[in-house]
Specification:
Its main location: membrane. The chain is mostly helical. The protein contains 19 helices and 2 strands. 77% of the residues lie in helices and 1% in strands.
Length: 452
């Protein structure tokens, strides 16, 4: 029977960083930064991550490590006889829905890897790559089949357990991700005119940043760390009491910054080098990047490397989404892990089929004016995640005993007491206020007030 603990702090940090570094960091960050001014957006994103994301990440760590239990039972132990355990169940539902459409995009990555290997992406122009993207996501057999294949990869790893599955995969995939990123970034930076893209990413021009862009940066800093669904509560529950949570949280945030920087340096220099528009939006990875790499020597090799690192990032995030559900269902009984992983994974596959078909045969089916994929994405990203994060911050402020917080915060950290008061002020006031601002923005309150 495997002990459900990380074998080392290194394994935990890489697994937790893998959870945070997913499609949001590599796919979403570049196109949101491209639309919202590049360098100015990046700077604001860093500020918000440090003052909103980091305190909340530490907070989730404190909950999980203090109880050494799954997301549901953690809240039950700290607040017995209350309804706070529903916060853990809300996280399970959110992770379930998130993985149901996240795996669809994971399937697209697998398709693109296959098309790159077989040469189907060679020699096309910009319009050709957009056509390939549309054909790929609208083909029901491809979309559903590779959605299933991506989930199978996730299930196989999670079924093996924390050390033998998630940690072992993360220890391989995360260093490989950084190495592959560096190779692609070096190639991108050697293109003619690449420095214009570097300047776009690193030199803030606040005239390009709108108030909406500031709110996007706040939201991105929050979503980029997998916060709000108690994933980090689950992951930290497998962590030894001797480990320094502040160091671990800081390392994860720094790795997140590095990946966002590398994603920008891989994409924007190449985009500017070929005179393309950085504000292309979601197709930036799947349509614009192939266009760029098709025009440079060995371009398809570099595209393949980028897609593989993109796959690694997607998988490591997906592991955490399935793990929070499996851990809550098995309640530490490792004999149930394999069966639970397959049952839950297959249920997620079934629920995700409408999302996989949203750009094809189900494109006319809409919920609240959105195709099914976008409706589930909106529900998760703009409602469930911010509400979950707000409730976690309130739970820490209102229900966790101060002595327990101090004990966990200072464990393995000699200078923890000096930082505790500052952290508590942020988690009580700054974090909830920031989340409320994001939430009011996404539901359109500011548009209604200002009439814009």
């Amino acid at each position: 029977m495997e002990s459900q603990q990380w074998s080392s702090k290194y394994g935990f940090i890489l697994a937790a960083a893998g959870s945070a570094i997913g499609l949001g960091a590599i796919w979403k960050f570049p196109y949101i930064a491209g639309v919202n001014g590049g360098g100015a957006f990046f700077l604001v994103f860093i500020i918000f991550t440090l003052f909103v994301g980091l305190p909340l990440l530490i907070g989730e760590f404190l909950i999980g490590r203090s109880t050494q239990k799954n997301a549901v039972d953690s809240y039950k132990e700290i607040a017995p006889g209350s309804s706070w355990h529903l916060l853990g169940r809300m996280g399970m539902v959110t992770a379930f829905l998130l993985l149901s459409f996240y795996s669809v995009v994971g399937g697209w990555i697998l398709i693109y890897i296959w098309k790159t290997i077989t040469g189907d992406l060679t020699g096309l122009d910009g319009a050709g790559y957009e056509a390939v993207l549309n054909q790929t996501i609208s083909n029901p057999y491809l979309a559903v089949g590779f959605h299933f294949l991506f989930l199978v990869l996730v299930i196989v790893v999670v079924a093996k357990g924390v050390q033998s599955g998630i940690e072992k995969a993360s220890v391989i995939m995360m260093p490989a991700l950084f190495i592959l990123f560096l190779v692609v970034v070096i190639r991108s930076l050697t293109l003619d005119g690449a420095m214009e893209g570097v300047q776009f990413l690193l030199v803030p021009d606040f005239q390009l940043l709108t108030s909406e862009g500031v709110l996007f940066a706040l939201g991105q800093s929050f979503f980029a760390l997998s916060l709000g669904i108690s994933v980090m509560v689950t992951y930290s529950s497998y962590l030894s009491k001797k480990e320094n949570l502040l160091q671990s949280a800081s390392a994860i945030v720094i790795m997140n910054f590095i990946v966002a920087l590398l994603a920008g340096l891989a994409i924007f220099p190449a985009v500017f080098s070929f005179g393309l528009n950085p504000a292309q939006g979601p197709p930036l990875i799947f349509a614009v990047l192939p266009t760029v790499f098709s025009q440079v020597p060995f371009g398809m090799v570099f595209l393949l490397l980028f897609l593989i690192l993109f796959l690694f990032a997607a998988l490591t995030s997906a592991f955490s989404m399935l793990e929070i559900i499996v851990s809550s269902q098995t309640r530490g009984d490792v004999t149930k892990r394999k069966k639970s992983s397959w049952i839950i994974g297959l249920l997620i596959f079934i629920v995700g089929i409408p999302s996989a078909l949203s750009y094809g045969v189900w494109s006319e089916f809409e919920l609240f004016g959105l195709i099914f994929f976008d409706a589930v994405d909106y529900l998760v990203s703009n409602i469930l995640l911010p509400v979950g994060a707000l409730l976690i911050a309130l739970f820490i402020s209102l229900r966790m005993p101060r002595e327990r917080l101090v004990a966990e915060f200072t464990a393995g950290n000699n200078s923890g007491k000096k930082l505790f008061v500052a952290w508590l002020l942020f988690i009580k006031y700054v974090v909830p206020l920031a989340i409320v601002v994001v939430f009011l923005d996404v539901i359109g309150v500011f548009d209604w007030i200002f009439g814009s």
